[in-house]
Amino acid sequence: MEAQQNDDLRDDHDGNPAPPDELHSTNTSVPRHQLATMAHETVYFSRPRTYGKGSRGCRVCTHKAGLIRKYGLNICRQCFREKSTDIGFVKHR
């Protein structure tokens, strides 16, 4: 009886129980931690981003918030403050 309980637990060498059988895979090329998240990853970014804020990003750092689109700059405001003198913008008071 005790041997059967030990077989059911299937502890590894550290004493931690083995993961549930549904996470076991015969394909060894996929890491075990990715098996549970694959279904979510296939749905997560499946909708096409062709318009709106999600489709545009800063051309320097790919940040999506605070984007300056005027004159076709497409640069976030943080990068604009760093690069404005290189681009040729001068601050007037």
Automatic annotation (TrEMBL):
GO cellular component terms attached to this protein's record: cytosolic small ribosomal subunit
NCBIfam families, A to Z: PRK05766.1
MF term (GO), any: zinc ion binding
Family per similarity comment: Belongs to the universal ribosomal protein uS14 family.
Keywords: Ribonucleoprotein, Ribosomal protein, Zinc
Annotated protein name in UniProt: 40S ribosomal protein S29
Biological process according to GO: cytoplasmic translation
Gene name in the database record: rps-29
Entry annotated with the keyword Ribonucleoprotein: yes
